[in-house]
Structure formats: structure tokens, C-alpha cells
Amino acid sequence: MKFRTALAIVLAVLAGVLYLFQPWSCLTTTGLLYLVTLLVGLSMVLLWSTVPKRRVDPTGKAVFITGCDSGFGNELAQQLDSLGYTVFAGCLAPDREGARALKSSCSDRLKIVPIDVTDDFQVSQAVNFVKSNIGNNVLWAVVNNAGVAVYCEIEWCAVQEFQKIMDVNVFGIVRVTKGFLPLLRQSEGRVINVASLAGRFTLPAFAAYSMSKKACIAFSDGLRQEMKKFNITVVTIEPGLYKTPITYEDYLIDHNRKSWAETPTEVRKDYGEEYFDVFLKQVQLSLKQARPNLLEVVDNMVEAVCAEHPYHRYVPYWRNQLRAFIIGSLPVSISDKLFARRFRMIEPESRKNKSPKGNKTPSPKDKTFWN
Ligand SMILES: NC(=O)c1ccc[n+]([C@@H]2O[C@H](COP(=O)([O-])OP(=O)(O)OC[C@H]3O[C@@H](n4cnc5c(N)ncnc54)[C@H](OP(=O)(O)O)[C@@H]3O)[C@@H](O)[C@H]2O)c1
């Protein structure tokens, strides 16, 4: 049973108990009626949200997806193909395993489109390719899924890394969306942007990635309002942490080591090697908490493409929905403390004798937030 269904039933039962037994004598009849109506209303809304959404007919509809080489994009391309959509699978490396596997496992409708979203020319080539190969279909959806991540503290994250991540995760989306909007206007289709919960909340060592995903959400918010006049729908998908190549431990650890080695000696001295070692352990610990079931995310992406009336925002996995709701309602001082508890660091070298807190090494039980 879905969490929302269970919660709806609990609320409805609670409403019934209140109404029948009226346990609180301090409540007036009107007060009680208000409470019961509120609980019943809430349970109805929750139940309604679990009813599967009506889907559009995939016949004659094409979808363009970026970043299909691996992860969510690869899985989404396969699923939409099996549902009968004509899929244009944008791949950064069309000769590598991911694209080849798509070609061999999907129908003839699926076409691989080479695209690096940071390259204006390649984006316009991809638009031309779709135009020339779309046949009698309309372009129904564009899924901006391509993305990169870094997981390191600001002081050893080079400015070029910030620029690169913004170029892929933000300007890539802007380029691709602007390129395809004329086709989407014809079909009154939709743009689906894969953001992240990191776009709502910034955890330590996530500043660069969070900046890009916050910008992606801001772009989507603006686009949604501006495209309403053309009946174009804009949706964001905001997952927590999942096991895909973007969260590969080896890559992220190597990247940190390289960045650390290139950091000025003065900065490294202030932090100290011990701090950096503990940092790497924390990164490893938190990546181990990544959720393995990609379908939690891909099902939401499929619904965003297929539903007649999709939500504007999808947060896969009920615990992450709950956490996002609670953390979003907390003052920053408290949410900062919560995040710090989940990413426990020791004092940097230059603070060791100044801090009253001592230098507690984090425990392996510490978990990351979005798992
Ligand atoms: N996994 C998570 O925990 C998580 C959480 C929240 C949001 N997301 C978002 O979900 C999206 C998909 O990521 P994923 O988790 O499925 O990881 P992934 O498997 O690494 O997918 C990202 C894809 O984007 C491609 N890509 C990278 N740079 C590109 C560029 N310049 N142009 C075109 N394509 C490019 C990658 O190609 P290569 O493999 O060749 O580099 C890869 O196929 C990303 O936007 C990511 O930020 C992921």
C-alpha cells in the first residue's frame, strides 16, 4: 500500500473516532465539526493524489531526451520506447556502450542523437536532426536530463568546476529548451527538467551542484509561467540521492583528490590532511546511502511525459517528500545544524586549538540526508 493511501485511511479513521466518541470535552460541537471536516478533506486529497493519472495516447508523439548514455535518461528512453513513443535519445557519446545498448534493446523508432549540451552547434544540429526525422509525429516532450556533479568543498572546488557544472546543468538546459520551443509550441507539448532536491536545500560540499540545480528550478519556474500562454507544460523532477554513474564513488573521490592537489598550499595547510581524509570518508559514507531503485525516479519521469495533467513538481520517494516538507519549514539555523549532523566533520587544522568542541571523528552510522 502506498504511504499516502495509508495516511489517508488513518486520517479518515481518526475523523470517524473523533466524530463518534468526541473524546475532548473542551471542543465545542462547531470546533469538532471543523476538525472532522478537515481530516476527512485531507484524507480525500491524499487518496485523490494516489489515483493513477490519465495518460495521453503515445501514437504520433515524439520525445527528445538528453543524457541517455546512462542512468535515469537511459532507463527513461527504454520505457518510453516500450510505451510506443518515438524516442530521440540524446547521447554525449553515441559510440559508447549506453547508446549501443539502447539501439539493440529498443524498437526501430528510437534514434540516437549525438549531443553535447554545452555546444551551441551540436544543439542546433540535434534540433535539425529531430526536425528532419520526426516524420508524421509531433514533438511532444523535451526531457532535459543530462547533468554532471561534483561533491567537494568550495575551497578546493576550482572556479572552472563551478563554470563547467553551470554550463551543463543550467546553460545546457537553456540551450536545448530554446532550440526546441518552436516545435513544442506546435504540439502544445511539455518541457521536463531534471533538477534535484539539492536545488531546494544545500548541504555541505554540495554548493556547486546545488547552485546549478537551484538555477534549473528558477529557469523552470520562469519558463512555466511564460509558456502558459502557449499551453506548454513545464515540470521539474527533484530526486534525492540515487546510485547512477553521477554518484560513482571512485569518480567523485578521484576528482576530490585531484582538486585538493591543485589547491594552494596555504589553504591545504589551514584544513590539514587529516581534515581532508575525514572529508573523503564522509563522502564515501554518504554515497553508500544512495538509493538503488532508479525506477522511483523514472516512474515519475514517465508520468511527467505521459500524464494528461502532470504535476508541476515531482519529488520521488515518500520519505524525501516528507523530509523536504519538514526541512523547508524549518529556520535556516536549525536545518544547517541538521545537515551538519549528517555530514560530521572534524575541526580544520588551523582551528584545532581554538574550538571548544574538540575533534570528534564521525561515526560510520552517520547517514546522508536524501536516501
Ligand atoms: N543520481 C542522483 O543521485 C541524482 C539526484 C538528483 C538529480 N540527478 C540528476 O539526474 C540527471 C541524470 O543523472 P543520472 O543520475 O542518471 O546520472 P548519469 O548516469 O551520469 O546521467 C547523466 C548523463 O548526462 C550525460 N552528460 C554529461 N555531460 C553532458 C553534456 N555536456 N552533454 C550531454 N550529456 C551530458 C552523461 O554522459 P556521460 O555518462 O558520458 O558523462 C550521462 O549520460 C542529472 O541531471 C542529475 O543531476 C541525479
Automatic annotation (TrEMBL):
Superkingdom in the source lineage: Eukaryota
Sequence similarity: Belongs to the short-chain dehydrogenases/reductases (SDR) family.
InterPro entries named among the record's database cross-references: NAD(P)-bd_dom_sf, SDR_fam
Keyword flag Cytoplasm: no
An example Gene Ontology biological process: steroid metabolic process
UniProt cross-references to Pfam families, sorted A to Z: adh_short (PF00106)
GO molecular function, one term: oxidoreductase activity
Transmembrane segments: 33-51
Protein name (record): Uncharacterized protein
Keyword flag Nucleus: no
UniProt region (Disordered), positions on chain: 349-371
Keywords recorded for this protein, A-Z: Membrane, Transmembrane, Transmembrane helix
